[in-house]
Specification:
The chain is of the alpha+beta class. It has helices at 65-72, 88-93, 134-140, 152-159; strands at residues 7-12, 35-37, 54-58, 79-84, 97-102, 107-109, 115-118, 129-130, 144-148, 164-168. The termini are far apart. Pfam families: DUF6886.
């Protein structure tokens, strides 16, 4: 599930949204109100239930062979997404939907860019599209999905490496095993 050229996507478990109004999310790190969306490269970051904690790492220019082998491992492709065992059933059964938007209504956000934001109300280009089997999406995208008792030790290794990384909903990760 990726956007077509000139589009960005927003993922949700609610298939009934007809308009998106800017708001300040409870977890926001900035005070401005936005509508959030992602481009083709960042879509896999959101192939999860909304509250699912996930730690993601990928090869980028400057990644050392040692870090790639240590964190991603042999045969794992260029990217790994890690989740906790406690989220597997929810990932298997999640009803996830994608909303398509005209990318011209959004601007890049972050340095490096990790999202796209709109500062006014936007409407999807059509109805929500069911994402389907998220495990099949990861397989088709050649993204390794790793399952761990807790994300935190893995996350500490990732953020200290030369890999690109992102952590989403890490506040929901188990703190001990």
């Amino acid at each position: 599930m990726r956007p077509e050229p000139g589009q960005v996507l927003h993922f949700s478990e609610d298939p009934t949204i007809t308009r998106f109004a800017p708001h300040v999310a409870a977890t926001a790190r900035q005070p401005e109100a936005y509508v959030w969306a992602v481009d083709r490269d960042r879509c896999p970051d959101y192939w999860f239930p909304r509250e699912c904690p996930r730690a993601m790492a990928w090869v980028q220019p400057g990644t050392t062979a040692e870090d790639r082998d240590r964190i991603i491992g042999p045969g794992g492709g260029p990217r790994v997404h890690a989740v906790e065992y406690g989220w597997l059933e929810r990932m298997r059964t999640v009803e996830l939907y994608a909303y398509r938007f005209d990318a011209r209504e959004f601007r890049p956000f972050g340095d490096p860019v990790h999202a796209h934001v709109a500062e006014r109300e936007v409407r999807p280009l059509g109805p929500a599209e069911r994402v389907g089997d998220v495990f099949a999406l990861f397989e088709a995208a050649d993204i390794q999905l790793r399952v761990l008792p807790t994300l935190l030790p893995f996350w500490e290794q990732v953020i200290g490496s030369t890999l690109g990384f992102s952590g989403i909903r890490m506040r929901n990760a188990r703190t001990g095993v």
